[in-house]
Amino acid sequence: MASLDFELEKRTFYKFYDSNRARLNSVKNGYMRMISQLLKAAEVGEVTAVEGRVKDREECVKKFHRKYQSKLEAAGQPYEIRNYLTDLIGIRIICPYEDQIVPVAEVLKRHFRIIDVTDKISALESTEDSFGYKGLHMDLALPEARAALPKFAAYADLPFEVQIRSLIQDAWSVLDHKIKYKKSIPNELKRRINVLSALFELADREFKEIRNATEELIQKARVEPIGEPTGSNGGGAGETAGAASEKTANAFNFMRIARHFFRDFEFEDFKVDGFVEDILKLDRDFKKSDLHRSLIEHLKTVRDYREAYLAESAERTFSPYTSIRHCLYLYNRETFARILSPGARERFEAWLRRAEG
């Protein structure tokens, strides 16, 4: 029963906390699973992490004392500490990019009951003497109809706080907590912290712009011709340096060409990036038309070799990357001698001699 006796209410809260610790952890894990499933089903892009915690009981009491106790006692209003703790269970959602925060929040608003929303970014931007870059905070609970179901009985009286941050915001928040005595430091140090905060914000925006520019390059590669006619020499006297540069092989046009020839294979972006870099180390001027021509001219031969190679042992593998390596080797044996290992090169040459004989 609520009272104005802080020590009594503190003991009551401790008793509740200790006796419900297992349930708090179970509900926290349940909320994490729900949110992960909702975000996976929604079109909000990749989410880096969904993390959770049950707030330390001493931190709970300190927060109540700091934010509510004096006001409630001055008003003569009895209280129970747990009723003022919407963040007893906390969930943190970390997104790669800042512009994912609002879409993620919209998904949560559609599936949970909103208790409160706090935009920490706007609050900090309007206060010169405050530091931090902490994203969007939401206090949520299960909708009443869902909370009334027997399977969600454990959740019914346990709201939770969600913090939605970008990777950069999360990094700043972690470092910000390491800066002690922020309210008491000299103005010179405050200015340095403000500069640092601005650099983090700039990094957030730049990562987003780089992502957007990369997506534009991918879209451009998808609509461009796969390769020049096989009789093209890859350029002409009147071709500008910029146009020639655009035809140089890169991860974007490689993906376009490779997917055309290997439709059932999933080319992962980071592997493609490294593979193209390996090619350019051997031939810095290698063009996308060279890649296209090498596959047109030699893929049939390589596929015949692949079939013979795999027939020798069920444990052998021969991926599309391996096929492309062999095509490049046939396209220019001198330049791409090292695209194959010595053993692979010797086996391939031996098979070619038998096939030709």
What do these coordinates show?
By secondary structure, the chain is of the alpha+beta class. It folds into two domains: 6-180, Beta Polymerase, domain 2; 224-231 and 243-356, no CATH class. It is built from 14 helices and five strands. It has helices at residues 6-19, 21-41, 57-74, 101-111, 120-125, 144-147, 167-176, 187-223, 241-247, 251-261, 269-282, 288-311, 320-331, 342-356, and strands spanning 49-54, 89-95, 113-119, 136-141, 160-166. It has a five-stranded mixed β-sheet. Helix 8 runs parallel beside helix 10 (251-261) and helix 10 crosses helix 12. It is elongated, with a radius of gyration of 30 Å. The termini are far apart. InterPro entries: NT_sf (IPR043519), RelA_SpoT (IPR007685). It comes from Trichloromonas acetexigens. This is (P)ppGpp synthetase. Residues 52-187 form the RelA/SpoT domain.
Which SSEs are present, and which pair or pack?
Blueprint: H1 6-19, H2 21-41, E1 49-54, H3 57-74, E2 89-95, H4 101-111, E3 113-119, H5 120-125, E4 136-141, H6 144-147, E5 160-166, H7 167-176, H8 187-223, H9 241-247, H10 251-261, H11 269-282, H12 288-311, H13 320-331, H14 342-356
Parallel strand pairs: 2-5
Antiparallel strand pairs: 1-2, 3-4, 4-5
Helix pairs in contact: 7-8, 8-10, 10-12, 12-13
Quick take:
This protein has 357 residues and is α+β, with helices and mostly antiparallel strands. It has 14 helices and 5 strands.
